[in-house]
Amino acid sequence: MVQLANCCLLTRKAEEDSEQVSKQQGRMQQHSTTLPWFTVVYGLLAACVALPPDAIVQLGLHIDGIWRTWLGSEGLHFVEYHMRRTIATLITHGVLVLIYALGVWRIERASRPWEERVKRAITAEFRHIDKVSVTTGFSRVTVTDSWILQTNIYLLDIALQSDVDLSLVATRDVPKLNSLERRQMVRIRVTSLNPHCHTFDMILDAEHYQTLSDKLSARIRNSRNLIIRQSLSDQFLAIFSQRVQANPRYAGRHSQLEEDDVCVGCNLAQPNVKIVRRTAIEGAEGDCFCRPMFCLDCIGKWFVSTQDQRRPETWLSGTANCPTCRTAFTVNDLSLVDAQ
Ligand SMILES: [Zn+2]
Ligand SMILES: [Zn+2]
After folding, report:
1. N or C: which end of the chain has fewer CB within 10 A?
2. Which of 1-5, 75-79, 188-192 has the lowest mean pLDDT?
3. What transmembrane ranges does the database entry give (predicted)?
4. Which ligand is nearest to the CA of 270?
């Protein structure tokens, strides 16, 4: 419940940030006149230093005057003097450009105070452990409670979850590296209802589609009825689940689950699986005395993660270790808890 309340608060906060974006548009226009004025005034001052009129030269406010001590005497060391003067000119012009860039940056920042709020909100949510991140090649999509963030080499795309329309626009099969298999890539278009935010596409492996859509608050429209293939691990988890459900149920002393017991894997479901050793595993003895701590889905994901990923045909006959006491078990050693 607390998690849900937090989620709502954050969503509301993000919506407020979105409203702020609209309200501040007027303030942006007011500040947009500052930049041209700064450019004109600074340009004149810079021109006076770079190409000084006679009056400025007489005041000593030109490059030769400013760097006089370091340049030395032209009459005594003509070549050295002009080599140093060239370096001094390059440094002075470089500093002028740098000061201008810093000035523009300060003006831009001052004209958009809402940006700071949005940045803080995004960073705060990015630190949450319940965000979902999917990396595909050089690009990474992160979905937090309120935001969709996509980073790649040159771009950062940001969209507010409550503010977007998501649609599946294409799927494509590409060969897998070092394998004869092919993997399916999906392209999801993110269109913001805010006209100031641009539309962008997220391209990701179909394997991550479900994880991502579970975290998104908006449904991904599939108006073209594109078919997304189930990933190998999803297919395995379905068979794994059927096998465990066919095993004898557990009704021992650990079947008295507390109401507030939650699976340590997903923190959502109630734990409902107990390891009960039935099969003889070479080199492994003893039973698991741990109380049920995982839901069927999470123990399945744990099981898959410990198998040889290159040989999926061996997964179902494989063994894994209890995440807590390290007792080895097979799929036949898992029982659903018979809650009493
Ligand atoms: Zn779980
Ligand atoms: Zn155990």
Report:
1. N
2. 1-5
3. 34-52, 87-107
4. 1
State in Å: Cα 213 to ligand 1 middle.
Answer: 18
Distance CA(167)–CA(201), nearest Å, equals: 10
pTM for the complete prediction? 0.52
Angle between helix 232-246 and 296-305 (nearest 10): 120
Rounded CA-CA distance 237/300 in Å is: 6
What gap in Å lies between CA 81 and CA 67, rounded to an integer? 11
Structure tokens at 307: 């198998």
Q: Ligand 1 centre and the CA of 300: distance in Å?
A: 9
Cα radius of gyration rounded to whole Å, the chain: 32
Q: How many Cα atoms sit within 13 Å of 276 on the Cβ side?
A: 19
C-alpha 59: how far from chain center: 56
Ligand 2 centroid, distance to 233 Cα (angstroms): 24
| Nearest ligand to the CA atom of 273 | 1
Which residues, at least 6 apart from 16, have a Cβ–Cβ distance to it below 8 Å? none
Q: What is the pLDDT of residues 118-177, one digit of tens each?
A: 889 999 999 988 899 999 989 999 999 999 999 999 899 999 999 899 999 999 988 877
Q: How confident is the model at residue 98 (pLDDT cuts 50, 70, 90)?
A: very high
CA 138 to centroid of ligand 1, rounded, Å: 30
Query: Helices 78-111 and 113-126 sit at what angle, rounded to 10 degrees?
Result: 80
Pick the ligand that lies closest to the CA of residue 333: 2
Q: Which domains are assigned to the chain?
A: 2-113 (no CATH), 128-229 (2.30.29.30), 233-336 (no CATH)
Ligand 2 mean position to 304 CA, how many Å? Answer: 17
Strands of the chain, DSSP E: 132-136, 139-143, 147-151, 156-160, 164-175, 182-192, 200-205, 220-221, 273-275, 320-321, 328-329, 334-336
173: phi then psi, degrees, rounded to nearest 5 = -95, 130
Contacts of 193 by beta carbon, 8 Å cutoff, 6+ apart: 163, 164, 165
